[in-house]
Amino acid sequence: MVKEYKLFIDGRWVDSISGKTFKSYNPANGELNGIIAEAGAEDVDLAVKAARRAFESGPWSEMAPSDRGRLLYKAAQKLWENLDYLAELESRDNGLTINETKHIAIPASIDVLEFYAGLANKIQGETLSSPKNRLNITIREPLGVIGAIVPWNFPIMLTMWKLAPALAAGNTIVIKPSEETPISVLELARLFQEAGIPDGVINVVNGYGHIAGEALASHPGVDKIAFTGSTDTGKLIMQAASKNLKPVSLELGGKSPNIIFDDANIEDAVNGSLFGIYFAQGQVCAAGSRLFVQESVYDKFMQAFVDKAKSIRVGNPLDPTTQMGPQISAEHLGKIEKYVQLGLDEGAKLVIGGSRPDIGLNGNYFTPTIFENVSNEMTIAREEIFGPVVSVIRFKDEEDALIKANDTIYGLASGVWTKDIKRVFRMARGLKAGTVYVNTFSMLDSAAPFGGTKQSGFGRELGMEAMNMYTETKHVWVDL
Ligand code: NAD
C-alpha cells in the first residue's frame, strides 16, 4: 500500500488546508514512494505561527541552553539508532547509493547535530573595554523563527546544516524540503519529536517552491531564511525576503575548478578527481566539474582517469556494489542530455558516456561522462550541469590555471593537486572560492565553514561561523 505523508505543524501530522497532495517517486525505478500533503500559503502561515509560539512562550524558550544541548544529543542518539532506516529512506527518496547515505551523508548529518548540541551552552557575548563608570557588554540572542528551504541532492544533510545550529542557538524552524524529496525530512522531524523536542520547534511544510517556498521566504513572521539551492532560485529568495528585509544566507550553485599540476601524485589525483565529479551522481554543488590538467602530464593523467571512470558501476542504488545511482528525475536527465548535445555542438570531444546506460532498470540513469578539448568559453564549462559530466581543460602553467579557474560566475569550491608547498599557498590565496581543497576534493567537516563567494552565494554554514548566522548581537550599555 502506498504511504501517505502529512504536513508536520506544531507537533501534529495534519492535512493541508486545501486538501491538495502530490506524488513522490523513486528515481531508481519509478515506483511511487508516497502521496504527500501539499502546503499552500495558509499552511505555511500556520507553521510560522506555531514556530513563533514555540519561540516566544513554549518550553523551548524557557529551557536552559545545556538542557537544549542534551535534547539535541538525545535526538542524535535516535538518529544513530535509525541509521539504516534513514539511509535507505534517503536513497529511495533521491537515488543516492546506499553507501553514500549509510557511510557518508547520514553519519555526517548526525555529526553536525552532535557538534551543535555541544555548542548550545557555549554561545558567548563579550565584555568590551569601557571607562570605570560604564559597562558595555554584548549578548548573542537567537533570531526567532528560521525558514529553511532545502534542495533534493542531500535532503537530510542540508536540512541538518540549518536545523542543528538554529535549534542549538534557541531558534525554532519551519522547513520546506524539495518537492522532489519530501519524505526523509518528515521522518527526521518525527525522530526529533520522539527524542523530546517540544511541539512547534520543528515544522515541515512540503510543497512547491513557487508556492510554499515563496510563502515562507516572504512571510513577515520569519526572522531569517536559510536557503540551499540553485543560483536562479537564490535570487528569487532574496527578492521575496527583501519585502520585509529579513536576512538570508544563500548556498547556491557551483562550477568548481579542480586543478592537476604535473608534480601531483597522479594516482591520488585521479581517485580524488573521480570522487570530485561522480560522488552523488555528480549532483553536488561543489562538484569538480571543470577539470584543469597541466599539458605536461595531460596524457598520463587522462589515461588513468578515463580508464577508471569507465569502470564505475551504475545501477540500483540499494545494491551495495553500485557506485553510481540514478539522477533525481526524468526532467533533470533531459537537462543533462541537452548539455551533452551542446558540448558536441560547440566542438568538445566526448571521450566516454553521454548516454543512458543499458542496465535494464526503469530509472533515471546516466553514464559517467567526460568531455575533452573543452575551452573555458564553452557552455559546458560555464553553466552548472549538476550531473556526472566533467569538462577537461588543458593549462600551461600556474598563472594560466589561476586565470582560467577564476573565470566563472561561481565561487563555491576548488581543488589543487601538487606537492609544491609554496604553490599550495599561492593557489589557496589566488583561487576565488569558499573552499580550497588541496590534494583531496569534496571533504566536509562539521567544524569547517562551508559556503560560496560570487554567485555561489554568501554566508557560511557549519562550524562556529554558522552560530553567528543564527544569533544576533545585542549591545547593553550600563551607566554605573
Ligand atoms: P532549486 O533552486 O530548484 O530548489 C531548491 C529549493 O528551493 C526547493 O525546495 C524548491 O522547492 C525551492 N524553491 C524553488 N523555487 C522557489 C521560489 N520561487 N521561492 C522559494 N523557494 C523556491 O534547487 P534544486 O534543483 O533543488 O537543487 C540543485 C541546486 O542546489 C544546484 O544549483 C546546486 O548547486 C545547489 N546546491 C547548493 C549547495 C551549496 O551548499 N552551495 C548544496 C546543494 C545544492
TrEMBL record:
<dbReference type="GO" id="GO:0016620">
    <property type="term" value="F:oxidoreductase activity, acting on the aldehyde or oxo group of donors, NAD or NADP as acceptor"/>
</dbReference>
<dbReference type="InterPro" id="IPR029510">
    <property type="entry name" value="Ald_DH_CS_GLU"/>
</dbReference>
<keyword id="KW-0560">Oxidoreductase</keyword>
<dbReference type="InterPro" id="IPR016160">
    <property type="entry name" value="Ald_DH_CS_CYS"/>
</dbReference>
<dbReference type="InterPro" id="IPR016162">
    <property type="entry name" value="Ald_DH_N"/>
</dbReference>
<dbReference type="InterPro" id="IPR016161">
    <property type="entry name" value="Ald_DH/histidinol_DH"/>
</dbReference>
<dbReference type="InterPro" id="IPR015590">
    <property type="entry name" value="Aldehyde_DH_dom"/>
</dbReference>
<feature type="active site">
    <location>
        <position position="251"/>
    </location>
</feature>
<protein>
    <submittedName>
        <fullName>Aldehyde dehydrogenase family protein</fullName>
    </submittedName>
</protein>
<dbReference type="InterPro" id="IPR016163">
    <property type="entry name" value="Ald_DH_C"/>
</dbReference>
<dbReference type="Pfam" id="PF00171">
    <property type="entry name" value="Aldedh"/>
</dbReference>
<feature type="domain" description="Aldehyde dehydrogenase">
    <location>
        <begin position="13"/>
        <end position="476"/>
    </location>
</feature>
<comment type="similarity">
    <text>Belongs to the aldehyde dehydrogenase family.</text>
</comment>
